[in-house]
Amino acid sequence: MFGGLAFLYKGKMTVGIVKNDLMVRVPADKMDDILNKTHVRPMDFTNKPLKEFVYVSKEGSVNEEQLQHWIELGLEHAKNKLNIK
Is the Cβ–Cβ distance between 54 and 8 less than 8 Å? Predict the structure, then answer.
């Protein structure tokens, strides 16, 4: 869909790789805080920011702890959409 690799949880997109960036689905209520983080920018695949999607540059996910944070955020988004606690 985005020209990259995406990982799903029960059919819902969580995280993926697009070129050199990590793509992450973010719960709507956390978008403002996440966009203020270093190495994060809105996903603008269509030259217009996509709702609840961000890109994280490779510098923002260089170690296992950082990557785990982004994966958990993507899973949280999917679980929220599926109403799973």
Answer: no
Picking from 52, 41, 45, 59, the residue whose alpha carbon sits closest to that of residue 15 is: 52
Residue in the block written with tokens 């603008």: 44
CB atoms closer than 10 angstroms to residue 53 = 20
Q: What is the pLDDT of residues 19-46, one digit of tens each?
A: 999 999 999 999 999 999 999 999 987 8
pTM over 0.90: yes
Spell out the residues 6+ positions from residue 13 whose beta carbon is closer than 8 angstroms to its own: 6, 7, 25, 74, 78
Distance, CA of 23 to CA of 28 (rounded, Å): 15
